Amino acid sequence: MKLIKLGEQQISVAELLEMSEKMFGGLVKAVVDLKQGLMLIDAELHADQELVLLENYGSDQSYLWGINLHPDKYGTNEFVEFDSMINMRPAWNNLSRGVDSLVTQAEIVSMVKKMVKA
Q1: Residue of higher predicted confidence among 16 and 7
Q2: In degrees, to the nearest 5, what angle opens at C-alpha 82 toward C-alphas 21 and 1?
Q3: Which of 60, 62, 102, 110 has the fewest CB neighbours in a 10 Å radius?
Q4: Claim: this prediction has a pTM higher than 0.90
């Protein structure tokens, strides 16, 4: 797993492509912490990344969202996919594996764009 901090580090599309080679579907799993500006990438399960952020970085679960990055689709709307079991949060009115709030989706995409370079 690799941690990226907003405003401090970036990851290249080439690095994401290399990571995606070991995953089915050519994707890279990531969990973002919208409050702290963190993105943990490259694990088999979003739940593993979520646990690391909660236990090691003091993240608040209500700000954590699971996404998939598709490096072969960088620069398109399909680059960031909102699909993770950790996103199912009825208590926060998120009833799907996606991210139901368009505002939250926009926040995630904006953060990811700042963290990933061509």
Answers
A1: 16
A2: 45
A3: 102
A4: yes
